[in-house]
Amino acid sequence: MIRLDDVTFRYEDLQMRFDVDFPSVSFTAVIGPSGGGKSTLLNLIAGFEAPEQGRVLIAGADVTALPPDRRPVSMIFQDNNVFAHLDLWQNVAIGIAPSLKLDAGQRKRVDAALAGVGLGALMRRKPGEVSGGERQRVAVARALVRDRPVLLLDEPFAALGPALRRDMLDLVKSMQQARGLTVVMVTHQPEDALAAASHTAYLENGRILALRSTAELFAARDLPGLEAYLGDWRSTGL
Prior knowledge:
Elements: E1 2-11, E2 14-22, E3 27-31, H1 38-46, E4 53-58, E5 61-62, E6 73-77, H2 88-93, H3 104-116, H4 132-146, E7 150-154, H5 162-179, E8 182-186, H6 190-196, E9 199-204, E10 207-213, H7 214-219, H8 224-230, H9 233-237
Parallel strand pairs: 3-8, 3-9, 6-7, 7-8
Antiparallel strand pairs: 1-2, 1-4, 4-5, 9-10
């Protein structure tokens, strides 16, 4: 589904090079040290950054030259990007039409998306009237109504407590399976990868050094950088 074909990008003094295929209709986590290029990887797929060379392909189509709004991609950030002056229903509806002029079928999609993330009863509240976890559910609902086959997540639940973070991961995983999505999620929490991802990539210094099934990657002993990155977590987290 997603292929980065010898894509290069420079940020400050870090020269990144990505040549990787992410499995189709799967949930892949991307882990690795801070500053290694994980968020940049997502931005290249989404179109927020342009590669110096190479191609980005989604479902076999070259999207390298397409702007973000023309790519078959939705993205959820750590900052949930809700609009304080709009209620929750409007914050989801804006994912379909920025004008908020929706037909009857589109309105039903918004209602269904909010119900699907457990916010049906809160749809007329403003973001300031709900919790941080509920605001992140709005971001997930907005991705639902956009109905794109690729979903990218850039540490979207990092600010949430462990129990709520697990609830949100379960929600995204169930959405991925029900809709047949291809999900790529950057996380600094190895336990998030274990909880939700079928595959995990280890990224270091602008390179993906391994992309394997999650169980296989966390059991690996042939990646010194991964050993150092996981540290004591390996003995306590697995």
